[in-house]
Amino acid sequence: MTTDSAPAPAPTAAADPLRVVVLAGGLTFEREVSLSSGTQVAEELTRAGVDAELRDADAELLPGLAAAPADAVFIALHGATGEDGSLRAVLDLAGVPYVGSPAAACRLAWDKPAAKSVVRSVGGTTPDWVALPHSTFRELGAGAVLDLIVARLGLPLMVKPASGGSSLGVQKVSRVEDLPAAMVSCFAYGDTVMVERFVEGTELALAVVDLGDGPQALPAVELAPASGVFDYTARYTPGLTEYHTPARIPDDVAQRAAELAVTVHRELGLADLSRTDAIVDADGAVHFLEVNVSPGLTETSMFPMAVEAAGRDLGELLAELLTRRAHTSR
């Protein structure tokens, strides 16, 4: 039994603010987008009462984390470093907890043809495709290979890097004579190009979060680019794309889209958060396009739109994910 003169109990560790490092930047084509996402995340977390520090993924990162350990790390890196699993593998080696999917799952999601193969293997619908490295065109003759692609997949086509994000290198090709130039342009972003049958329809961004009760889909965001194609220009030029949340689709289609996003998240072994990109054709079929393990989190990104449509505060949701990871690692 304590008396009035007894000292008050010391504050518990839980009373201390969560200390988080937000990783952004990196040395990829998507550096500026990543810095924008990271800055937004740090600001949202600060408003949610989290001690958030924004850091680049450079040679000072690991010594800094060793000298001043964070409770958890949030990865707001886009492009190879943040999404192909390599950074996460290093954080695993260092014993640093982080929000997001494990390294092996990231490697699978980063490889778009591989991710499409997994989705198709579990009954998901995805546009037909072929993925070929630059060496194939050089060794077998670009003209002959391109003729076979058009004969197999038809026109129009979507040409995109087999890995990567932010719609970099993505082009719609409607004429045979435009295909060689599109391929050359796409090879600037990677050694392997994926050529995919174009599906006309309503493009959706499908955010998924897992706060401990299993992955849940948030309201779908509809993308309506003025050009009809959600490429890099449409994504990042103000006024060129309209966004509608929730998407203007029938309830049954929205349900199927949500189920697809959750299936992708589970089957690829993803964790915490993801964003699946899909398209709904005229018959209401939902086609899987790709999945992002480090979705954009800028003020104009689709993931925050979905969070807002779900009635959640972005900073509080991210803080909850970080708190779970910090506690799990202890």
Automatic annotation (TrEMBL):
Keywords: ATP-binding, Cell shape, Cell wall biogenesis/degradation, Cytoplasm, Ligase, Magnesium, Manganese, Metal-binding, Nucleotide-binding, Peptidoglycan synthesis. It is found in: Cytoplasm. One of its GO terms (cellular component) is cytoplasm. The keyword Manganese applies. Its cofactor is Mg(2+); Mn(2+). It comes from the Bacteria. GO terms for biological process: cell wall organization; peptidoglycan biosynthetic process; regulation of cell shape. The keyword Chloroplast does not apply. Residues 116-323 form the ATP-grasp domain. Binds 2 magnesium or manganese ions per subunit. It is an enzyme of class 6 (ligase). It catalyses: 2 D-alanine + ATP = D-alanyl-D-alanine + ADP + phosphate + H(+). Transmembrane segments: none annotated. Mg(2+) 1 binds at D277, E290. Mg(2+) 2 binds at E290, N292. Its EC number is 6.3.2.4. SUPFAM superfamilies: Glutathione synthetase ATP-binding domain-like, PreATP-grasp domain. One of its GO terms (molecular function) is D-alanine-D-alanine ligase activity. InterPro entries: ATP-grasp, ATP_grasp_subdomain_1, D_ala_D_ala, Dala_Dala_lig_C, Dala_Dala_lig_N, PreATP-grasp_dom_sf. Pathway: Cell wall biogenesis; peptidoglycan biosynthesis. Cell wall formation. Belongs to the D-alanine--D-alanine ligase family. This is D-alanine--D-alanine ligase. It comes from Trujillonella endophytica.
